[in-house]
Specification:
This protein is of the alpha+beta class and 196 residues long. The strands form three sheets. Strands 8-7-2-1-9 form a five-stranded antiparallel beta sheet, with helices on one face. Strands 3-4 form a two-stranded antiparallel sheet. The radius of gyration is 16 Å and the shape is globular. The N terminus is likely disordered.
Length: 196
């Protein structure tokens, strides 16, 4: 079993790269807990109706010890707040998860990613910003120093089944090109994006 109680992220503001790295590391920590769950459950990742239900299973079965793992206070996502206690609510969860993943699923499958995007599970598909949440914003140090406020969306943290965590940069419209890699093969399976 993996016990995770991770408090990642720069306090307060922090430079954009630090926030990206923290979100990426958080997605990896969640992904590794999901993977450990699958090792203990014959290759099957936890399932539920929402990402909150899936992540609650990780807490209940002691794969995660700190529910703040699923909350990212260092990136502004309106309507989200720190969890109070071990019972997660949708407003405590800042990540979506893919259902229904098992050992035979493609290694290129995105399993955990920041919420606020619509995912289509086919090769070369982008992640589309749905506008429900304000995407993270990016500034250069010079822009930060000079107080620039008209920023562009910058991207999404994601953990793929092959244990690759990354920050995928966004286009100016907020979409993430090639979020699903070109060599993704669903192998006849249907996947579903679970939001909080």
């Amino acid at each position: 079993m993996v016990l995770a109680g991770v408090a990642l992220g720069p306090p307060g503001g922090g430079p954009p790269q630090a926030k990206q790295n923290a979100a990426m590391l958080t997605s990896r920590a969640i992904g590794e807990c999901l993977y450990q769950y699958s090792v203990d459950h014959n290759g099957h990742y936890p399932e539920g109706k929402t990402a909150t239900e899936v992540f609650q299973q990780l807490i209940d079965q002691k794969y995660v010890t700190d529910p703040e793992l699923f909350y990212v206070g260092y990136i502004r996502i309106p309507g989200k707040m720190r969890p109070q206690g071990l019972r997660l609510k949708a407003e405590n969860v800042c990540f979506d998860v893919t259902c229904c993943v098992d050992g035979s699923s493609s290694d290129e499958l995105p399993v955990v990613f920041l919420t606020g995007f619509k995912i289509y599970y086919k090769a070369n598909a982008p992640a589309i910003h749905i506008g429900r949440f304000e995407p993270p914003i990016e500034r250069t140090w010079s822009e930060w120093w000079n107080g620039r406020t008209d920023y562009q969306p910058r991207g999404i943290a994601v953990w793929y089944k092959n244990n690759n965590a990354m920050w995928k940069r966004a286009n100016e419209d907020g979409s993430i090109p090639n979020f699903i890699p070109a060599d993704f093969d669903p192998k006849g399976k249907t996947y579903q994006q679970l939001t909080p």
